[in-house]
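Quick entry between incubations.
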Amino acid sequence: MQETNISAKNFEQCQKCSICETVCPVMANNPAYGGPKRSGPDGERYRLKNGIFFDDSLKYCLNCKRCEVACPSGVRIADLIQQARIDYGRKAPKLRDMMLASTDQMGPVAGAFAPLVNFSLGLSPVKGLMDLTLGIDKHRTLPKYSSETFVHWFKKNAAAKQDAFRKHISYFHGCYANFNYPQLGKDFVAVLNAFGYGVHLIDERCCGVAKIANGMIPAATRDARTNIAEFEKAVSQGRDIVTVSTTCTMTLLEEYPELLKVDNSKVKDHISLVEQFLYKAIASGEVKPVWKEGYKARAAYHCPCHQERLGLGIFTTELLKMIPGMELTELESNCCGIAGTYGFKKENYKYSQMIGKPLFDDIAAQAPEFVACECETCKWQIEMSTGVPVKNPVSILAEALDLEATAAANR
Amino acid sequence: MPVKNEFDVIIIGGGITGAGTARDCAMRGLKVLLIERHDIATGATGRNHGLLHSGARYAVKDSESAEECIRENKILRSIAANCVEDTGGLFITLPEDADAGFGLDYQQKFIEACTKAGIDAHAISPAEAIAMEPSVNPTLIGAVVVPDGSVDPFRLCAANVTDAAMHGAKILPYTEFLDFVREGDTILGVRVRDARSGQESEYRAPVTVNAAGIWGHGVAEKAGVHIGMYPAKGALLVFGHRVNNVVINRCRKSADGDILVPGDSVTVIGTTSTKVPFEECDHMEVTPDEVRLLLREGCALCPALASTRILRAYAGVRPLVADDSDPTGRSISRGIVCLDHETRDGIKGFVSITGGKLMTYRLMAELATDAVCRKLGVTQACTTAETPLPGSADGRIESVSKRFEGKPSAGQKGAAGRQGDLVGKIHFNTEADRQLVCECENVTLAEIKYAVAELGVRSLGDLRRRTRVGMGTCQGTLCIRKAAKALAEALGDPSLAPKLAADYLDERWKGMRAVGWGATLREMEFMQRVYKFEKPYSYDEV
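Done. Structure below.
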């Protein structure tokens, strides 16, 4: 590796083979985007010469990281692009981008007035106004806010019982489970408790992925430092960190050191996605599932792009295949097109839907009861675009497991 | 055999010296013919660091060269803004330099010598040096800032040739000098052969200038004149991208591999110095020992080079000249040598301009042109120091880029950097014209069409020297067929394309094989598989 950061991210290993261009979902749909090779390693050579070669079109990269999965030379192409946006891009983010990115700050405010906020965000005049004034596409429905956050529920209903367990983990729930969909957090607690793990919260901050994507680097870095310090505390207590969101996990594992220069080396090996954590525990005989009699489901699994980048999709499919009565098919590897806050932006809406179309068509052809997927933003996109419900694997487990029998088997 | 005698002066050699002399002569109103056996800038001109010397390197040992350098440095910044980049330079002192007697005492002596020569040099702390250039060896114990820069020798040479042509000079590349036409002691002109058609012709002029670099030795022999020349090979390595943005030198007695220059999209380390036989001058190859030496010394300037990808290696031959006053021929001058063979050897109508360096080409051209004018009785004064070269009236990429409608594309910004304020002549009319041909170096079809139409391009190598096409990471693997097709069509014979591409790749391969390991070896394998050519090297050899 380089001793200075000048040629970091392996960019000089690029052979120009252009395989990355064949897998880039944006390049195939948006002619304004130069593609991963030109925006990444090619562009980097010229940006090192003169910052004037930074091109605004890098904003069209949705950071799906499919280029990195495809690259035979190990070039961190998407990271190069994100880094260039950080180093050379517009310094002050727009109001809209700040609002979309600050999931943790908007959450508490919106949650306090959840019924009103959800009602008004769903009204077409409000959507039209947001489209015009903020550039949030009117076709989108912003995720609903919950009146009671997961953390509030947990403290009231679950926290006191956790110390009684024999084994313990720390749960990084992420903003979505906390503000928008506490049921996911509740399912997580139910499943982990059933397997005999006490669940503990840490003083977590937003992972920062949306802030990174929208150029709010100092804020993202502050949050990252707090999270890592919290993780170190948990690890010192012998607790691994278990997560539910693919993209949060990728951010904690990869983006912290690469883009924010926050060292996660002490805790990296102790962070795992819940599906990976449970698959390993079950496969090693550490825990034992007891399944509900008569559970039946026909599901199609969509592997989120970042799950592919992390190489973790296999844990989810193997875990779901353990469920008796589960008829699971795997969807073709395609990007859904939303990429977090990307698809909410008016300028990206059209391409977002074009990118997702092969996936939507695949889902329509398979016509499953529901789609299984670890990522919350994929969920919004797929539900909005296909009408097929999307369930997180943890929620599927919560339905398929005989929780009481499992708890008894793992006491 | 057609005879033409329509020139005041014939210049042999299309390197920077010949190009500069052609420009100067043409600007003084002479009818000029420039002949070059290959393309312009194919000899030593295109095979060096591309360092815009401040003169600091020579300050301690050779104050005359130092003064020449800083004068020309300032002139080039003003007349060749488009070819020059103001990177600044550092002369660093390392702990091992101090051990070898070149410590901070020497640094003081160095600064005094620079100041005496008119070079603005001041010491900064190691911490300041690292802040200025983060890739510099962090163990340094001292650094001096000097006004070094980088210069693109291809662009500089092309700009001189273009300006000469704009002042009426006739430029004949791919025209090989065969012999002189002479009558007794007087040179009347030259006999040449068109390298493509093989057709021979004669051109006549009252004065002929030998500006053929190291090959000037052979040219002079044809006139029955001996110039004691020493071909000194210098090898260099090109790294895949910019590692440094400031020139880095060692503050000690000049040695091998002690200058690291950021030029255009790459960084270049050099050079070595080895005497080679004249027969080898046409076929320079860089040896494994030279590569090792350059890497070792390069890493002392900038440790990251140890793990940075090397694109290729190349070597040039310096035309060093033995001092006429030294009968042993051992005393080599690095200064400019301008010989009037009438006074020196009794041969009328013949001038040789040699020695010197890229940095002082304009001064060399001025001296040669003065000699020509004396012979012709012309009294016109030299104006090359005040007149900007074509493309350089506004040479800043930032301001030139603003000339495009709307936001400039990568290809337009690339063209602005290379062609300077001549970008207006590039027509980005159609979607196809705006498309990038070479994605590594941001070269559009429009720029290629411009280079073919206006800059005398005949081969892909010529095109590379004008536009950087195929000079990037893939060394042409991904773009050269597109470029070959565009060039062949522009030359009016689309069937030429495969040959043009093959010639180009052969030449690239030669430069890559000296550094064929790691990512470069993978690139070579990739190139070989894409084009399915036989592997012209063995692993043992490399």
